[in-house]
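Exercise: predict the fold of this chain.
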Amino acid sequence: MKKNCRSAIDVGLLTIYQASHKDFPYWHASVGKNCAAKVAIEDILVNVDSDNIVGPDFVVDVVDGFSYGSTKGFNMVLHYEGVDGTCGRIACTRKDFHKIRGYDEDAHPMGAHDIDLIYRLRALPGVWYERVGNLPFSQAIPNTPDEKVQACDQRNPLKWEQMDAKNKALFAWRRTRQPDVRNPHTETIGVLVAKANPQD
């Protein structure tokens, strides 16, 4: 990223954060996404998975959607799911994201966390949900289920499909007991991260 995104870093458009290997030794989607949201300072959070490419109209569409919502008195939740692999494109207010304490970290590292987040955001009062179709040039980089979990703890014997199924059932059960808030036993969501030196 430091090599290929140099221009964005130099003008302050992109800031890179990193977690220590001790705190985050293996990939866990909910923890990783919560880390990014925790350091964000903008009023609108937009999650785009690392295997996604967004088109030139994506940012404009997000702004238009939230502008429309504000004129109607709604907090928007926009879900940009189109082609396979784009389920994780979710835009919401930072306030609402932190109100429900982000993605559920107490689950398998991959599968179903994006849809669970959407259900919980939609349970909040004053929220308007909209599923947006695929925008031009937006796509996901093809990868296999095995590739999706290759950075997860390999001591977990489950395949992606199994993690997804188990998380779906777990999250659905939790929503019947507590429709929105998650991670109640942790002081903060995610793990500690620090700004990476952009010159390294």
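Check your answer against the key: The first helix runs from residue 6 to 10.
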